[in-house]
Design goal:
Elements lengths: L1 E4 L5 E8 L5 H5 L4 H7 L4 H7 L2 E7 L4 E8 L12 H7 L13 E9 L4 H15 L5 E7 L6 H4 L3 E2 L6 E7 L8 E4 L5 H11 L2 H6 L3 H7 L5 E8 L2 E9 L4 H7 L98 E2 L2 E2 L22 H14 L29 E9 L10 H8 L5 E7 L12 E2 L10 E7 L8 E5 L5 H7 L6 H14 L8 E8 L2 E10 L3 H7 L16 E9 L7 H11 L4 E6 L6 H4 L3 E2 L7 E3 L9 H4 L6 H4 L6 E6 L8 E3 L3 E4 L3 H11 L4 E3 L2 E5 L16 H7 L6 E4 L2 E5 L4 E4 L4 E3 L2 E4 L4 E2 L20 H4 L13 E3 L3 H20 L8 E5 L3 H12 L7 E5 L3 E2 L2 E2 L13 H14 L2 E4 L2 E9 L4 E9 L5 E11 L3 E2 L2 H9 L8 E3 L10 E3 L4 E3 L17 H12 L50 E7 L3 E7 L7 H6 L5 E5 L6 E7 ...
Parallel strand pairs: 5-6, 14-15, 21-22, 21-23, 26-28, 27-29, 27-34, 29-30, 34-47, 36-44, 37-38, 37-44, 38-41, 46-48
Antiparallel strand pairs: 1-2, 2-3, 3-4, 4-5, 6-8, 7-8, 9-10, 10-11, 11-14, 12-13, 15-17, 16-17, 18-19, 19-20, 20-21, 22-25, 24-25, 31-32, 32-33, 35-45, 39-40, 42-43, 43-44, 49-50, 50-53, 51-52, 52-53
């Protein structure tokens, strides 16, 4: 913040920020006649939308005092925005030869509050120069003879010209001059010491009060110290050294793009000697997919075996000691994590004045990342790997083990014989006032080492990315590296900004482009598009192609190929691009589709400028880039390659779609461009505004254990923060990152995961956690590998375990009454080998294998004639998943007579065996339970009730053992022997024993489950947990079943978990929770924060359990050919009979029946809101639009076309048909909930123009407090006031606006004037 003075003397404390569209009304109030004279009449919202940079000044009351909009081209019509440099040269303006698109912006609009115009203009200009380090000139173009207003006249100076417009310039050196950099002398000690002490005392405490003077005095040809001087005073310091442990860096980081930090040598080995084995090399992380795969067999702790003093040699005296501040010493040891630019390319032969320019070998889309995660939906993969086993032992399940990495070959490592080409920055410190000019050091430091081309700096993971290293390229760490710092690299040629230019590609560029992309996967498609552009400028179907190259001193260092976005309607309707743009302010031809983008890593810090130039020269305002899942057809994937630049784009969330009854709608259905089925992809986006908006880079290592619904939701919330870039997100999971989740909760479908493309942002480690080393902050894997963390998130949930036979003496007629609860629910010891035909069904990998096995076994079963003695498949469990598994086996071809559903008891003499209040019935609704039981009977499935596994008989196989028969105890007499082909276990469901041991041995509080507080923290503040593995600590008195996380929406829990972590990193969020100050009031509490200005010793909100509001959903296919969908309110689920007996139950509406396959039950609460929805349908009877029906939860029945009154009048006989009528489709729109909130906000405020009146909501609350039952006269009075005050018209206007703005989704609604 700073202050500006008015012409009359009063001052205002102001804050400069980027302009938002909501500022437009306040900006309009500042417009004066002089503004129109200079800039004409301008649509402010359109200007904000199209500006590369717009700045607003506001005071402490958030009142707008000034505004300015800047674009990368002049606003005159006679000048083509794509070629304004030529216009300046033709008009012979001064500075025409010095101004470039990289160092110039144009002021398009300025307005400020009277009396503050001069101060606002100066502050805005200073802010812009600080925000854009490369900027040197700000131009103002006015009609010839027009003078700028006095505030601008003091800042902008006219240039000589022969043109027809007046051009004024504001130059950097008049406002934010370059720092004077010189070699340090001992006399600088007195200026620098207070600066170091203010930031950090670690160096002084370690080396004494005069360490800085000693360092300056010890300068020699290999060690130098520089200072930045302003007004004769040193305000910044940098120490550099030419001694670097290059071999250590090569071992820890992917340095191929920079030739291993060595000079080229004839003995370098840069390529694999045996090309035929090159296919086994694993691609490294790319910017299009910054993914680092750490194989479970690779020990991440290998680096720890190095001597403890291994570091960059030049920092052994100073920078290898701990203690860094936000602007103090930057660099000591080195640390790995995923790449900033994301590519680990093999070096190419192109060079620029001796600098090695390497192209990149990326993962071009998610479809190229299959090696980094387990693909769970492609049965073909399993067919290839499992056929041989299945043919040898058809009655044995495929082994449920992790894929072995023993056959994987290590990727080829280049060998560099040349001398070191690098020097290091040991220590860096600068005053906060001048930190935006940190890059002024860079040109000077290379002068001290003319024979070195690369500067490196290392920073700890938890140090925020400061302005200096924003010019550097972050280097990808190798998977085995585990050192605690990040490595950043800057090449000498990155300083050549005046010669870096972007232009249209031409035919002669082809050879250089071919060399640039020689080592990029699928480069042939990029080159094919370039040839097509050179020959015809368009595709065969007429689609325009635009190709641009980045040229530096005559050498091609980057290429970008775009096309017109032909499916922008599909993008708008399926993705939330309106989170980033106002769609109506962009012409259709201004949307571009990015196909290929490659930029040499040396010039990585110019990526946004490259994209900005593509937008300007291509007359585009937006670019879109898709990332396809790994099962997409190659014909679609091959059209795209993105080697660099993805980190500078923002991921766009997908929108929930309406399931349209297209046949019933007919001509009133949405356009085919909206409803057409396209290949699924995750969308990334950049527009003009974003090209000059930096992201906050976060290097903290956030490790998530478990690919559960909660874990995926947490990662989604983290990755889709558009202004944050997490470099070190890691997921550790047994199966890696799945393509679909085996879950009945519908939290994430396979389509949802495809829209996320999490493997583009998350490192995936396939393995099992066995220990947590809290002292070293490391997770230990089952193979001994270690993964370091700064924040650990445990989301493993609970898994079905293989049951341990109770060992009951069935020969002597043992019964269930002889068993304890622990015996019934005890899993098999993990140290004991399980029979090969026993499987605990926990994920899609298991499910696909089970379906394959069922298909193969059905053929074998048909050959057995004696059905009485034939073996059967035993499904053991009474959960909802057990019934779904039976249906899966039936669908796989297994005869119902060969399936046995053994259901363990819910109670025995020793107490309850089930935790919920539904007596072990997963449906909790007699009609559903009876229908499923009838379906089991009709299919011939045997159901064994209250059976407990007592014994299994095994026989040896070539690789282990398999069970041949099982025995059960019952409440009466035991079942001595049941011939068994295989056992599918869905009981018991417990926390994995290895997870328990890891938590328990790490001394995390484990009280039946992992204990957490209301912010998901365990007793270790660096470890958080959520999901069904957790429970609230006992101090919350929330031990009931209804407070456990499995009773709530997993996606909402993951989001809430992310919201507790983000304040640690996001500067835009209030992180006061960490400083014991109360958060904003939430529905969880009514406790008041206390007196403002006083510090609370304890946050009262921490004593309250969070309140979750999203619906709990259950879906699955059940025996009888049924599809089942159940939506209920979160929390405890009482027995169905108890619900009906409650006087506050509300109303129930039931249509259809299970026999006809169209059952629909709707429970309306006493507050007239939909609280429960149950559907049981057969596909041949009725369609089940699941996404639509889920949206009914929480909606007031009046929104449902006065549902209760219509039911009472007998007008509704089929709820399925009722909700498929065209009028209901708006209810299912993804923005309908926002519309409801807008209406609520409208009625919560006083009527427009009558602020003295109370709001309608306040009046209703007052009546309810006086008498809960509002009589008819009071209702009539409220209606009259609602109509008289204009609020009715306001609500109707909002409704029409909602329908009009979303008309591409809702064309079935009539607009005013249509009828």
């Amino acid at each position: 913040m700073t202050t500006v003075a008015s012409s009359h003397g009063p001052t205002e404390v102001i804050n400069a920020r980027r302009t938002e569209s909501v500022d437009a009304p306040a900006i309009l109030q500042l417009i004066a006649q002089r503004t129109h004279a200079q800039f004409g009449r301008v649509n402010i919202v359109h200007l904000i939308e199209k500006s590369n940079l717009s700045v607003t000044l506001s005071n402490e009351e958030n009142e707008v005092l000034g505004f300015a909009g800047f674009l990368d081209h002049p606003q005159i019509e006679v000048c083509d925005p794509a070629d304004w440099p030529s216009w300046m040269k033709e008009a012979k303006y001064d500075l025409a030869d010095k101004s470039t698109p990289l160092n110039s912006l144009f002021l398009h609009y300025f307005v400020a509050k009277d009396d503050y115009t001069i101060g606002c203009a100066s502050e805005i200009v200073r802010t812009v120069f600080n925000a854009v380090p490369e900027l040197r000139f700000i131009f103002l173009v006015l009609p010839l003879g027009t003078q700028p207003e006095p505030a601008l006249g003091e800042i902008f100076h006219p240039l000589k010209t022969e043109g027809h417009n007046s051009l004024y310039v504001c130059q950097r050196h008049n406002h934010v001059p370059l720092l004077h950099i010189r070699q340090a002398v001992v006399e600088d000690h007195d200026d620098l010491t207070p600066l170091f002490k203010r930031l950090n005392n670690n160096l002084t405490e370690t080396y004494g009060n005069y360490f800085l003077a000693e360092m300056i005095e010890a300068q020699d040809e290999d060690n130098h110290a520089l200072v930045a001087e302003v007004g004769g005073k040193a305000v910044g310091f940098m120490s550099i050294c030419s001694h670097v442990n290059v071999k250590f860096l090569q071992d820890c980081f992917e340095l191929n793009p920079f030739h291993g930090l060595c000079k080229p040598h004839e003995n370098d080995i840069l390529k694999e000697e045996y090309p035929e084995t090159s296919e086994t090399e694993e691609p490294s992380s790319s910017d299009s997919a910054p993914v680092q795969t750490v194989p479970s067999t690779t020990s991440v702790s290998e680096i720890r075996d190095q001597p403890s003093n291994v570091s960059i040699h030049s920092v052994s005296d100073v920078a290898d000691k701990p203690g860094t501040a936000s602007h103090e010493e930057r660099g000591s040891i080195l640390a790995p994590t995923p790449s900033d630019h994301g590519v680990t390319p093999a070096p190419s032969q192109a060079s620029l004045n001796g600098a090695v320019l390497t192209s990149c070998k990326p993962k071009l889309s998610e479809a190229h990342m299959g090696t980094s995660s387990a693909s769970l939906v492609l049965e073909e993969t399993l067919e290839e790997t499992g056929n041989s086993e299945a043919e040898e032992e058809e009655d044995v399940f495929l082994n449920d083990k992790l894929d072995s990495d023993t056959d994987k070959q290590h990727p080829f490592e280049p060998t560099y014989a040349g001398e070191s080409n690098v020097f290091s920055i040991q220590l860096f410190c600068i005053s906060e006032q001048f930190e935006m000019r940190s890059s002024d050091f860079l040109p000077e430091i290379f002068k001290f080492f003319p024979n070195k081309d690369i500067a490196v700096i290392t920073v700890p993971h938890l140090v925020p990315e400061f302005p200096l290293i924003q010019q550097f390229v972050r280097v990808t760490p190798k998977p085995i590296a585990n050192v605690p710092h990040e490595l950043y690299v800057f090449h000498r040629h990155g300083l050549i900004n005046s010669h870096f230019r972007v232009r249209l590609a031409c035919t002669v560029d082809y050879e250089q482009v071919e060399k640039l992309v020689a080592n990029i996967d699928m480069n042939e498609h990029l080159l094919e598009d370039l040839r097509r552009y050179n020959s015809a400028r368009r595709d065969a179907d007429g689609t325009e192609i635009q190709a641009y190259v980045a040229d530096c001193l005559g050498q091609i260092v980057g290429i970008c190929i775009i096309r017109r976005e032909e499916y922008i309607e599909h993008i708008r309707s399926h993705y939330n691009i309106e989170d980033f743009i106002y769609f109506n302010h962009h012409r259709r031809d201004e949307h571009g589709h990015l196909h290929h983008f490659v930029l040499n890593p040396i010039f990585q810090h110019y990526s946004k400028h490259f994209l900005k130039e593509v937008l300007r020269q291509g007359h585009k305002s937006c670019l879109y880039y898709p990332l396809y899942p790994n099962y997409t057809e190659q014909d679609c994937v091959n059209k795209h390659s993105l080697a660099t630049g993805l980190n500078f784009m923002v991921p766009v969330r997908a929108r929930r779609q309406i399931d349209y009854p297209l046949e019933e709608l007919g001509i009133n259905a949405p356009s085919k461009r909206v409803t057409a089925k396209f290949p699924l992809y995750a969308l990334n986006h950049i527009n003009r505004k974003l090209t000059l908006e930096p992201k906050v880079t976060i290097n903290a290592r956030v490790v998530v254990i478990g690919a559960s619904d909660v874990g995926i939701a947490f990662l989604e919330s983290i990755c889709f923060c558009p202004h944050l870039r997490f470099n070190n997100l890691t997921l550790i999971s047994k199966r890696g990152l799945p393509d679909s989740l085996h879950s009945s909760a519908l939290s994430y479908t396979s389509d949802d995961l495809a829209y996320l493309s999490l493997r583009s942002w998350v490192n995936v480690v396939q393995g099992i956690m066995t220990a947590i080393d809290r002292s070293k902050k490391q997770v230990v894997m089952s193979d001994g590998a270690r993964v370091s963390y700064d924040h650990l998130i445990l989301c493993t949930g609970q898994q079905y375990q293989i049951p341990a036979p109770t060992g009951a003496d069935v020969e002597n007629s043992a019964t269930n009454h002889d068993l304890s609860k622990s015996a019934v629910n005890r899993p098999l010891d993990i140290n004991l080998p399980a029979p090969e035909n026993v499987m605990a069904l926990n994920d899609d990998w298991n499910l696909v294998r089970l379906r394959q096995w069922g298909t193969k076994m059905s053929a074998k079963m048909d050959k057995e004639n004696n059905q009485d003695t034939a073996s059967a498949v035993v499904v053991y469990g009474r959960t909802f998943d057990a019934y779904v598994t039976v249906q899966d086996l039936l669908s796989s071809g297994v005869q119902g007579s060969r399936i046995v559903l053994a259901r363990p008891p819910t109670h025995n003499s020793n107490g309850a065996l089930c935790d919920d209040g539904c007596n072990g019935d997963p449906f909790n609704e007699p009609i559903i339970s009876d229908a499923v039981a009838a379906g089991l009977t009709a299919a011939g499935v045997r159901v064994l009730d209250d059976h407990v596994l007592a014994r299994w008989d095994v026989e040896p196989t070539n690789t282990g053992t398999k069970i041949t028969a099982v025995a059960f105890t019952t409440p009466t007499k035991p079942l001595l022997s049941l011939p068994c082909l295989g056992l599918v276990s869905l009981h018991p469901r417990r926390i994995d024993h290895r997870t328990f041991l890891a938590c328990n041995d790490a001394c995390l509080v484990f009280d039946g489950r992992l204990a957490i507080d209301s912010n998901f923290k365990t007793n270790d503040p660096a470890i958080r947990a959520a999901g069904s593995m957790t429970k609230y600590a006992r101090r919350y008195h929330a031990d009931g079943y209804g407070s456990k996380h499995e009773n709530f929406n997993s996606r909402e829990i993951g989001f809430r978990l992310a919201m507790t972590v983000l304040p640690l990193f996001d500067p835009t969020l209030d992180g006061t929770n960490e400083q014991n100050e109360p958060p904003p009031p939430t529905p969880a509490t009514t406790v008041k924060p206390g007196t403002p200005g006083t510090m609370l010793t304890e946050n009262p909100h921490d004593k309250l359990v969070p309140v979750y509001t999203d619906a709990k959903v259950t879906y699955g296919q059940l025996p009888g050919g049924y599809k089942y969908l159940h939506v209920r309110k979160p929390g405890e689920r009482p027995a169905y009979t108890a619900q009906l007996e409650s006087p506050e139950h509300g109303d129930e509406i039931v249509t259809g029946s299970s026999e006809r396959g169209n059952y629909f039950r709707l429970h309306i609460s006493q507050y007239r809101r939909v609280e429960t929805v149950t559907c049981l349908v057969r596909q041949d009877a009725v369609q089940l639009p699941m996404t639509n029906i889920v949206r009914l939860f929480g909606v007031h029945e009046r929104y449902l076309n006065n549902l209760l009154s219509r039911v009472n009048e007998g007008l509704i006989s089929d709820l399925h048909a009722f909700f498929r009528e065209p009028w209901a489709l708006a209810l299912f729109h993804d923005r309908f909930q926002d519309f409801r909130q807008e209406v609520r906000d409208l009625l919560s405020c006083p009527p427009s123009g009558a602020s003295s009146l109370s709001s309608l909501e306040a009046d209703v609350r007052q009546l309810v407090e006086e008498d809960f039952n509002v009589n008819n006269q009071q209702r009539a009075t409220l209606r009259e006031r609602y109509a008289a005050t204009g609020q009715r018209k306001a609500v109707e206007a909002r409704l029409l606006s909602f329908l009009s703005y979303n008309y591409y989704h809702l064309p079935m609604y009539a607009k005013p004037g249509m009828v």
